[in-house]
Amino acid sequence: MSTNYPNALVVKDLDFGYQRGETLVLSGLSLNLSGGTVLAVVGPNGSGKSTLLHLLSGRLIPWKGKISMYGRIVSDLESKDRGKVVGLVPQSESIPLPYSVPDYVLLGRVPYLDYLSAPLEEDRQLALQCLEDLGVPLLRNRKLDELSAGELRMVQLARTMIQQCRILLLDEPVAHLDLSLRTRMQEIIRLLGQAGKTVVFTTQDFETAAAAADRVLVLGRGRAWAEGAPREALTGENLSDAYGKEVEVRWVEDHPLVSMPG
Fold first, then answer.
1. Most confident of 80-94, 149-163, 232-246
2. What pLDDT is attached to residue 108?
3. Is-contact 251 231, C-beta < 8 A?
4. Among the listed residues 72, 62, 68, 36, the one whose alpha carbon sits nearest the alpha carbon of residue 166
5. Could you give the CA distance from residue 36 to residue 55 in angstroms, rounded to a whole number?
6. CATH superfamily of 9-96+164-259
7. Domain boundaries, the chain
8. In this predicted model, what pLDDT tens digit does every residue of 28-64 receive, in sequence order?
């Protein structure tokens, strides 16, 4: 793991809600990740996992606190500059289905293009190389509406990877993936961290959190209950606090077995 930048992603005392006067979605959240760290964010539905990624990406603005990346406040960055620092693969998005896979992946190069300019041949080669690196080179001949949900996730990741940003945000990256693609995605996430990228991903899959992440953040009921190495964060006590009901965790080697008694 590369730690050549000790404060790659810093979140300080972050508060956010969608409606004034209602309970905060996130309250008092702080993080400090070095370059090359992979952080998994786990917690029940509605705990603010996706909201956190949208705040980190600059799509949402915190009510309180600040978010900085490599020494720059995210909300102060112009859209193009932000796209060179951080990229988001959302859980769902409006997708232009008639696009071919290479043309869709090329959308990730927008931060580097002048207004109305077309991608260069080197951009196209980079798009094809990303598909190769992800293990799905044959998708280069397909259109988006011909893809399975799992294949589409890999193409969305390729689009974000060719942004060549230093921080990647992945919302439920293993959702809808079969066993083979899920294992491949876990490997890709680890490799991104080893290459010096800072990766934050959300997941409901505790096995993926333990397999792919250096650290795990446990969210629930508007707050962080734990943040640390997988074995430190994924405990029955922490998950019980986050989910508001009893959770049991048993580790078998490096694999967490999580259950809710009764």
1. 232-246
2. 92
3. yes
4. 36
5. 20
6. P-loop containing nucleotide triphosphate hydrolases (3.40.50.300)
7. 9-96+164-259
8. 999 999 999 999 999 999 999 999 999 999 999 999 9
SS3 53: helix
> Residue 15 corresponds to which tokens in the numbers above?
């508060």
- pTM beyond cutoff 0.90: yes
- Band (pLDDT 50/70/90 cuts) for residue 249 is very high
Dist CA 131 CA 111 (whole Å): 20
AA identity, residue 116: L
Note the pLDDT tens digit of each residue in 190-222: 999 999 999 999 999 999 999 999 999 999 988
Supply the angle between the helices 149-161 and 179-194 in degrees, to the nearest 10. Answer: 10
Where would I find the beta strands (DSSP E) of 118-213? 167-171, 198-202
Lookup: tokens for 30: 């702080």
Give the count of beta carbons closer than 10 Å to the beta carbon of residue 67. 23
Integer angstrom CA distances of residue 154 from 8, 157, 181, 215:
25, 5, 9, 23
SS3 (DSSP) at 64:
strand
Residue 215 CA to residue 234 CA, distance in Å, equals: 10
The per-residue DSSP string of 118-131 comes to PPPHHHHHHHHHHH
